[in-house]
Amino acid sequence: MRFLGMLLLLLPLLLSVTIRPDNRTPVLGPPGALAVGDLLAATPAVSTGKGSAIVGAWRLRGGFRLFGNYSALTALPDGRLLALGDRNDTLVFAPPGRPRRPVLAQMPFPGTWGRDGHSFDGEAVTALAGTQRLLVACEGADTLALFDPDLRRFRRITVPALREWGYNQGPEAMRQLADGRLVLVAEMRARWYDRTHYAGLIFAGVPRPGERPGRFELVMPEGFRPTELAQLPDGRVLVLGRKFALTGFYSVIVAADAGAICDGAVVPTHEVARISDSRLRENYEGMAVLPEPDGSSAVWLISDSNTLAWLQRTILLKLRLRS
C-alpha cells in the first residue's frame, strides 16, 4: 500500500524512477554504491518504549536505478539483509556495523511478468530455513513466488485463499516461523467497521496444492495496519504496524505468542516499541531480526520511500528489545 501516493493526486507526475523490466541482470556494486548517512551520530539511543530503543539510524541512498520503494525485509543466512521493493527490485546488503560486502540489486521477475497481467508489487518476503530459497508475496496476486537463492528462477504457487483479500489489501506480511509454519497477514481488516482486527492465514510450510490454510485474526493497536512479521529467538512473533495521519507516518511494533497463532484464534498482541521521534518517523514497511556478535538480537526496519525521494526517505533503523 502506498497511502501517501493515494493522497497526492499528482503522483504520476512525480515518479522519478522508471523500471523497465526487460533486463534481469544483477547489478553488483562496491559497498560504496550504497551511501549510508548516520542520523544519530551525535545523539544517544532513542527510546521507543519501556525496554526498547533505536540504537542506530541511517539514511540510505543508492547510486543505481534499482533503488528504493522497499516494502519488505528478510535476513539471509550469511548475515546480510534482503530488501524487496514494490517496483520489481531487490537490494542485498550488509547492514552497518557488519563487514562491508558488495551491494547487489536486481529485478526478480521477468520482463513479461507485468505485461502479462501479473503483479510484481512485492509486499512480503521470507527466507526459507535450510534451503536459502525465498518466498515472495505480491499485492493483488493469488500466487506466491518461490525463488532460488540467486533470484534468477522461480515457480508460482497458487493460493486460492488469497483471492478473498482485496486487490490493494492483500498479503502485506509473511514469515516462516521457527517451527516451519508459514504465516501471512492481510492489510485487509477482518471486519470493515473494526480498525483493530486483521485477517491471517497459516500453512504447515510452503503451501501445497489443495492445502486448506488455518485462519486467524490478528489484533493491532487502533488505526495501525500490519506491514511485516518477524520472530525473535525467544519465540515471540513481532508485528510491524504503520499508521498515516495528517502529521505523517507513525510506526509501532507489537509482539504475539507464536503458540497463540492457530486456526480460529483471535491473536492478542502487546506493544514493545513505538517510533514517534519526528526525526525518524517514516513509512516503515520491512522488518527483520539478525543475531548480534554478543549473542543478542537486533531488529532492523526499512522504510518505503514511495518513489518520492524529494519528500520521503529510505531509512534503516536498528532497535534493541529487552528479552
CATH class descriptor name: Mainly Beta
Span from first to last CA? 32 Å
Q: Major sheet: size, sense and barrel closure?
A: 6 strands, antiparallel
Q: How many strands in all?
A: 24
Radius of gyration: 18 Å
**Which overall shape is indicated by the principal axes computed on the Cα atoms?**
globular
Kindly name the structural category. Answer: mainly beta
* CATH topology (fold) name: Neuraminidase
Overall helicity: under 10%
Element-by-element helix/strand order = HHEEEEEEEEHEEEEEEEEEEEEEEEE
Q: Residue ranges: pLDDT <50 for 5 or more in a row?
A: 1-23
Strand content: over 45%
Can you tag this structure with a few keywords?
323 residues; mainly beta; Neuraminidase; 24 strands; five-stranded antiparallel β-sheet; six-stranded antiparallel β-sheet
Question: Would you write up a description of this structure?
Answer:
The protein has 323 residues and is mostly beta strands. It has a single domain, classed as Neuraminidase (6 Propeller), CATH 2.120.10. It has helices at residues 3-7, 11-14, 112-115, and strands at residues 27-29, 34-38, 46-49, 52-62, 70-75, 81-85, 90-93, 103-106, 122-127, 134-138, 143-147, 154-158, 171-176, 182-189, 197-203, 214-219, 225-231, 237-245, 248-256, 266-267, 270-275, 284-291, 297-303, 314-321. The strands form five sheets. Strands 2, 3, 4, 22, 23 and 24 form a six-stranded antiparallel β-sheet that branches. It has a five-stranded antiparallel β-sheet with strand order 1-8-7-6-5, with no helix packed on it. The longest helix has 5 residues, at 3-7. It starts with a helix and ends with a strand. Mean pLDDT is 86; it is low at 1-23.
